[in-house]
Design brief:
By secondary structure, this protein is α/β, with parallel strands linked by helices. The chain contains 23 helices and 14 strands. The strands form five sheets. Strands 8-11-12-13-14 form a five-stranded mixed sheet, with helices on both faces. A three-stranded antiparallel sheet has the order 5-7-6. A two-stranded parallel sheet has the order 1-4. α19 links the parallel β12 and β13. The longest helix is centred in the middle third of the chain and has 28 residues.
């Protein structure tokens, strides 16, 4: 049981991307079901994650803590796994691991998450919680049509009791009026408005002098509010990421707002009307665990045969619906049609990219990434790099990120695979992207990048290279990738040709592809990586090699 000491909505923030818990709880169940969840099994679990290519370098100093951070938070809190007395998947967890479509499973579990609960008990210093946070956030978004992330962070997170819903709506309305009347700088206006909200939320702490935080010895009110503002940003970000896992919301990365997908409004209205807003089994853990782990509740629109048939007819009017089909068969039929539509949308997008019709849009997105002006920059970098690689040259270019039902980027690739895989027939290429910089870039990306390439080489059974892209390249990464060019490491399948490039240089390569008077071919790609191997063997150190290959990249289509 966790003690909640929060004045705003409490939600789990780990894992950051909900989809990443799916393979991890699957591994946990496969190898540790029936065992006790203790430091021994926690360390063994982390070692298994490393072997299975899920581990990205975090938690090396305390693997048991890292295991608990991965499993004890969202997987347990959302009812996917039971850790006491022994490890086992709940029925909802089994559905999450095995079902074809995960979004509906995530939705049911999010709608049941509540505070207070036997898992999360508020303290005397916390807000007076009585809420199912995700259910009420769906209601708030639906009420306004579109909710800016600023509004979610400043006001939505104050919805700690569903009976205060109208009061939160009033706060947002007043903010919008004040914003419309503001003639000055929006960032300054927002900062001052947020400061007043924070001082109201934490007025008791401030008046009693309880302003010390774990992060620093500085107990000033300014630092205290700065820390709380940062925490609220993390909570709001987590809310958005988990809501997106349901497939029911759209994200405007430029406008930084969230809205209900128009085609999904009927489904949202259904559960907003029928789902119970009251927390339940607050003091009965056995009943709460059974309720939380039940994958059939709450009831959704797709559980009604009549409404599901109407939904199918509305979205796919050309489809014949058999009168003898079972409800599950109808659900499968609907899922197949949604998947086929998504694949068709992506196929059309690829055709437009290959014809360079998307060049200007790709360029604009890269500029916004460099300016860090998008909501989810890591996701947009992964998606836009896939588009750029598709345009750059021939080959079969596959993105491992998750797309929603309408072909929009939804979440980044899982941790046990490259971000992008390019098959050029005689050779292959993995592409890894990150917004990380400094030493953190090397610690989280250096080893996994080489491991993903090694795994791909084993599976593809042909020569393969890797392109590593980030806004800036850390010196430790330069040294590491330079060394791997020359070191014959059996674990990595021999030497590893990994080229790190700043995003600005990669953008220049994309521009050169667009401006060339011919269509680049796979041989141009392979020539670039062969040149990297030549430079690695002819230069004295990583700086000479890196400078040399960067120059090659800037002129990669020069014959």
């Amino acid at each position: 049981m966790a003690r909640i000491d929060s004045k705003v909505i409490f939600v789990t923030t780990s894992p950051r991307t909900p989809a990443k818990m799916i393979p991890e709880i699957g591994l946990l169940h496969t190898h540790f079901a029936g065992q006790r969840w203790n430091k021994d099994t926690q360390r063994a679990f982390m070692e298994l994650l490393r072997e299975e290519n899920f581990f990205n370098g975090e938690g090396a100093n305390d693997p048991a803590f890292s295991a608990r951070d991965r499993i004890n938070r969202a997987p347990k809190a959302l009812g996917f796994i039971i850790l006491s007395p022994t490890i086992q998947l709940t029925p909802a967890g089994e559905e999450l691991v095995n079902a074809r479509r995960k979004d509906e499973i995530f939705l049911r579990q999010l709608l049941k998450f509540q505070v207070p609960s036997p898992f999360h008990k508020p303290t005397q210093n916390s807000a007076e919680f009585w809420v199912k946070p995700y259910l009420e956030l769906f209601r708030l978004i639906r009420h306004f049509g579109s909710l800016r992330f600023d509004e979610l962070r400043m006001f939505g997170l104050q919805l700690v009791d569903y009976r205060e819903f109208d009061a939160i709506v009033y706060k947002i309305d007043q903010f919008r009026i004040a914003k419309a009347q503001n003639e000055g700088n929006y960032k300054r206006f927002r900062s001052e408005y947020f400061d007043r909200e924070l001082r109201e939320i934490y007025s008791v702490d401030i008046s009693s002098g309880n302003t010390k935080t774990r992060e620093t010895k500085d107990d000033s009110v300014v630092n205290f509010l700065k820390t709380k503002a940062s925490n609220m940003r993390d909570y709001a970000d987590a809310c958005v990421r988990y809501l997106r896992a349901t497939g029911l919301v759209n994200i405007s990365h430029v406008g930084k707002s969230i809205s209900i997908v128009p085609e999904k409004i009927q489904e949202v209205d259904y559960f907003l009307q029928h789902a119970d807003r009251e927390p339940c089994f607050v003091d009965n853990e056995g009943q709460y665990v059974a309720y939380l782990g039940n994958p059939l509740i709450p009831r959704l629109l797709t559980d009604s045969r009549e409404l599901l048939e109407q939904k199918i007819r509305d979205e796919f009017p050309q489809l014949e619906i058999s009168a003898t089909a079972t409800l599950q068969e109808l659900k499968n039929l609907f899922a197949d049609q949604l998947e086929n539509r998504k694949e068709q949308i992506i196929t059309e997008e690829v055709a437009a990219i290959k014809d360079y019709r998307k060049f200007e849009d790709i360029s604009i997105i890269f500029d916004q990434i460099l300016d860090n002006s998008l909501y989810d920059t890591p996701l947009m970098l992964e998606w836009n790099t896939w588009r750029a690689m598709t345009m750059l040259d021939g080959g079969d270019i596959k993105a491992n990120l998750k797309f929603d039902d309408f072909g929009n980027p939804m979440s980044t690739a899982q941790g046990n695979m490259p971000d992008i895989v390019c098959d050029y027939g005689d050779f292959g290429l993995t592409v890894e992207v990150t917004m990380q910089s400094g030493q953190r870039q090397y610690e989280t990306e250096g080893e996994p990048v080489a491991r993903h390439l090694a795994k791909y080489k084993r599976e593809a059974e042909k020569p393969a290279y890797c392109l590593f892209i980030a806004p800036s390249i850390n010196d430790a990464c330069k040294a590491h990738f330079y060394a791997l060019h020359k070191m014959n490491i059996q674990y990595y399948g021999g030497t590893s040709t990994i080229i790190p490039l700043p995003l600005s240089v990669f953008i220049k390569m994309v521009q050169d592809s667009y401006n060339a008077n011919y269509v680049p071919e796979p041989r141009h790609v392979q020539r670039f990586f062969d040149r990297s191997n030549e430079l690695a063997n002819s230069t004295d150190n990583e700086i000479e090699w890196y400078n040399g290959i960067t120059q090659e990249a800037l002129n990669w289509l020069t014959e």
